[in-house]
Amino acid sequence: MTETTNKDGRIQVDRLSIELGEGPARFEVLHDLSVTIEPGEFVCLLGPSGCGKSTLLGALAGHLAPSHGQVTLDFEPITGPDPDRGLVFQQHTLFPWKTVLDNVGYGLKMKGVPRAAREHRAVELLQLVGLQGFEHRYPRELSGGMQQRVEIARVLINNPRVLLMDEPFGALDALTRSRMQELLLDLWTRMRTTVVFVTHDIDEALFLADRVLVIGPRPGRIVEELKLDFARPRSAALLTDPAFVQLKRRCLALLREDGLAPPLERLSPLGAPQWRFAV
Which of 55, 71, 95, 205 could form a disulfide with 44 if both were Cys (CB 3.0 to 4.6 A apart)? Predict the structure, then answer.
């Protein structure tokens, strides 16, 4: 394959292992994990708590160094944090003493962008995430969902090649979470940034992703990849689609402690995304 020089957001994880702790307490979190994520792809990492999902995200962000193997972005090794890889957490990290406008524009301020230019871009992004009119509010004056919109806008202002999201909607109520999922898909459709999204919620993973990587119990490894062909744009009605329900059953089986599940065979009459369990 010919390597491209374009900065498109292609992630390659090659035989990655990560160990944490010191001395006798040292343990392996990820083991010999390999995967390629294509530019503009929306990939969810699905697995039980403690399986290494967030550890993998930390390696992609450049916060954790591999014990073995390598992680690259557009064929360049990831050796540390960079605004090209924007990170959104479940916990809010907004500066409470700064306005929404200043929070969103902070990344451009650190790059030396003049105030007028960064405020113009921040206003554009706040409109994009549905927060026009809230530019001069403070985080304490916003709901949880609104604060998470600000978090996303603050990351996107740097035009990252990759958006890394660590259970960003986990603390939200069900209705707000659903709305934030739809907002995220709308933003992704417009911008086509590569997204790696960590969740332990099966519905969320299947609703959002082009591809779900199911990670087994520690030491984490990919036990199965599920490619999702559901049409976009997606709506909440998808959650009751028979094909969606079958895939949910599959994921539940894979996430059992033993990680065992029967193989899944695909039936595609007229190209419909239908599945059944093999016996």
Answer: 205
Q: What is the DSSP string of 134-159?
A: -TT--GGGS-HHHHHHHHHHHHHTT-
* Beta-carbon count within 10 A of 119 CB: 18
Which of 251, 254, 250 shows the shortest CA–CA distance to 265?
A: 250
Q: Using CA atoms, how far apart are residues 222 and 228, in angstroms rounded to an integer? A: 16
Helix (H) or strand (E) holding 29: strand 27-37
Which one, of 250, 213, 230, lies nearest residue 13 by Cα? 213
At 82-102, the pLDDT tens digits run 988 999 988 778 999 999 999
Taking the CA of residue 48 as centre, how many other CA atoms within 13 Å lie in the half-sphere pointing to its CB? 14
The model's pLDDT over 184-205, given as tens digits with 9 standing for 90+, comes to 999 999 888 999 999 989 999 9
Tell me the three state secondary structure of residue 9: coil
* Full-model pTM: 0.86
Residues 31, 17: Cα–Cα separation, whole Å: 4
